[in-house]
Amino acid sequence: MAADPISLIREAWQDGQLAYMSEDATQYRFRNDVSLPKDYKTAMRARGGTGEAIDLRTLVLVLRYLNQSHGEFVKNTKGSQSITYTDRKDLEVFLTGKKNTSKCLPGLADSAVPSFEPAAKRLRTDDGALAVQSAAAESSAMAEVLSRERRLRDRNTQLLIPGKSFKRVLDFLQHAQKKLSEKERAAAGHKHRQDASGSHRSSSGASGTSSKRREESSHGVPPPPPPGGPSVAKHHRPSSHPQHHHSSASKGRPPPSSSKPSSAARGHKEVRGLAPIIIVPAAATANINMANAKEFLQHGVYKLPHEALPDGAPRPAVDKFMRTMGREPPGVPYVITSKAPDIKSNDWRRVVAVFVSGQTWQFKDWPFKGIQEGNLAHALSKMQGIYVGLKGDVVPENIKKWNVLRLEVPKGDRHKDRPIVAEIFAAIDKFLSAMDSQMAY
């Protein structure tokens, strides 16, 4: 009786012998020296059982490339019979024994394909009754083992990515809402105290002026003219006790304060209302520079620098963009530049982030400690450091040492760019919130 090639393949898979199955250019050699041609047309048919017969080579290749994507499968099986993704998945579950039916095998019922045991465990003896009894006992034991199995993953839990959650975003949002509420309460309390103090001074001044006028009228002194009137000089009388008058007037005023505002207060006042500055590398080979930074940060679309600008178009040294991500229209203005401020410029207080390329010469002549020795700890404590690389590229060694936000943009999937930009602005917001920045960011 001719061997059934489908049963031979299923048994070889169950026994773990498929990888060791010998073959030559034209045929496969199964256990017990059963050989079949590779182009042997089996009973299975493509397109869900309505197409042409599937040859033996295709069935073997389905199992050999079981864990590959369909694109890789098509690439690795070039030259053999082509099958659709749906047929391949149907063949996988059937040939591996997960199901005993297949759409590619028309008219096949569950009872038509017997469930089989691994051949290595199968009793082969001349005593048929003993073999049947042993096989039944082994089948019963296997059924008991399978009944105790517990499924650990399903198609929903398989989609979960360990270590990925939105908890950090929610924590940042709660922190920002808390800070905003505290500022609003502080501003409301300050305004209430100012209103109460102004009302008290106005009432005291009015009552004092009225009593003074009544006293002058009782002694025959004419009331003073309105301030700035034409008869100011006419009714002005010099005081007979100028020194005493000066002393009395001095008592009513608080002594001038000799204290000056702190440097932090002056810094807040200097940057309040000014646009934040983001510095990008000047190198043309950097992944982020003036050629593509504006479109990336404003619209959430990444382009390679040489693709972002037309041929021959100059790159600006300074540019502006409106941050609309996470902000109400029309957005918040930001400044991007490849030229760092002068070493003594107050614009350093406005620098909120720097995109780094991994080269230490990018920070030459910056006014921070350790720059000349290549130590960026002080500089990166004053602004958020960001490195954006291309997925799959080698990360520079300096980037691994520096305290910067490391991100990767894909080379093809542009719909993933906006979440990366959102992560950049979330890091900047968190940094500025911790620094209690007064800029509108």
Automatic annotation (TrEMBL):
Compartment(s) of residence: Nucleus
Protein name, entry field: Cell division control protein 73 C-terminal domain-containing protein
Keywords: Nucleus, Transcription
Residues annotated as domain Cell division control protein 73 C-terminal: 275-431
Gene Ontology BP terms: positive regulation of transcription elongation by RNA polymerase II; transcription elongation by RNA polymerase II
Stretches with biased composition (Basic residues): 233-248
Main location: nucleus
Biased composition (Low complexity): 197-210
Keyword Nuclease: no
GO cellular component: Cdc73/Paf1 complex
InterPro entries: Cdc73/Parafibromin (IPR007852), CDC73_C (IPR031336), CDC73_C_sf (IPR038103)
KW Nucleus (keyword) present: yes
Taxonomic lineage of the native organism: Eukaryota, Viridiplantae, Chlorophyta, core chlorophytes, Trebouxiophyceae
Family to which the UniProt record says this protein belongs: Belongs to the CDC73 family.
GO MF annotation terms: RNA polymerase II complex binding
Region entry Disordered, spans: 180-269
One Pfam family from the record: CDC73_C
Highest taxon above the source species: Eukaryota
Organism annotation: Coccomyxa viridis
